[in-house]
Structure formats: C-alpha cells, structure tokens
Amino acid sequence: MHIKSQKDFFCGLMFMGLGLAFAWGASTYNVGTGARMGPGYFPLMLGILMAVIGAIVTFTSLVVETEGGGKIGKIAWKPLVYVIGANVIFGILLAGVPALGIPAFGMVIAIYALVFVASMAEAGWKFRTTLILATVLAVGSYAAFVMALKLQFPVWPAFITG
To answer: Cα 11 vs. chain centroid, distance in angstroms?
Structure first.
C-alpha cells in the first residue's frame, strides 16, 4: 500500500494509539452499563471513539489522494517545548512537589502560569491579550470547578490562605 497523505496517516496512528491507551486504562475501572455508568465508562467510550476515528483517518490517508502528498514538515520544537512545559508547570504549581519542597500554589496561579508559558509558543504573543485570556480562564475555572461542581482543591497558595 502507498501512503497518499503522510500527515493523515501518522495523525490516524496517533489517534488509534491514544484511543487504545485510554480504553485500556479505563478498563481497570468499574465500567458499568449505559443505564448505570461507572467511573470507567466515559473514558472507555471516548478511547474507543478516538481509536475508530484514527482508523478512519488512517484508512483515508491510504485511499484519498491529497495535493502535494501531505508531506510532514519539520518539527516545530519551540511550540512543542513551550506547550509541554506549560502543562508540566501547571501540574507542579497546582499540586506542588513535596519531595522537592515546592508547595502547592493553587489553581489560579497555576492557570496564569499555564496560559503565559503556553502563549509564548506563539510567534507574536502579546502580554495584554494573554493576561485577558488567563483572567477569563481563571474566573471560568473557579466558577465551574469550585462554585458549580464543589470540587475540593487549593485555589490559592497555602501561605496566602493560611
């Protein structure tokens, strides 16, 4: 078989791999039934759906001709490092790393750090736009997770709240 679109082929493989990994990980939880869903039901169904979409995209990349062959270009290292780094920083700031003596800074500071670091991946990022986005996300996250869902996790650093 001849790959007619490299981008779609490898994208489909990635979706299949991630979908199968999610489905396999979710199978360790109680899945339940459609009428009485367990904690593993949604991730299992999402993983299966991702794998099916990946299979369709992979099949399409082998059948449908694309203009220029859909070649894969160079890896954009700068955005990749910034986006992955932003997620790592978010996790560290949200929960802290007690083994390294890093305290939890809470959700609000973690969201601001996440947005600012990830925004630096953009070629012409602007401070004002990033500040507005971070504020909207922090307020929205607080409203959704703390006020609406009543989830219990640190919103502010312990040295501020006591």
So the answer is: 16
Buried b (16+ CB within 10 A) or exposed e, 30-47: ebeeeeeeeebbebbbeb
Name the token pair of 17: 């791999």
At 19, the pLDDT band (50, 70, 90 cuts) reads very high
Q: Is 126 helix (H, G, I), strand (E, B) or coil?
A: coil
pLDDT at residue 140 above 90?
A: yes
Q: What is the reported pTM?
A: 0.68
Q: Across the chain, what does the average pLDDT equal?
A: 89
Neighbour-count burial of 50, counting CB atoms closer than 10 A to its CB (0-12 exposed, 13-18 middle, 19+ buried): buried
Interhelix angle 107-119/77-95, rounded to 10 degrees, is 170
How many C-beta atoms lie closer than 10 Å to residue 15's C-beta?
A: 20
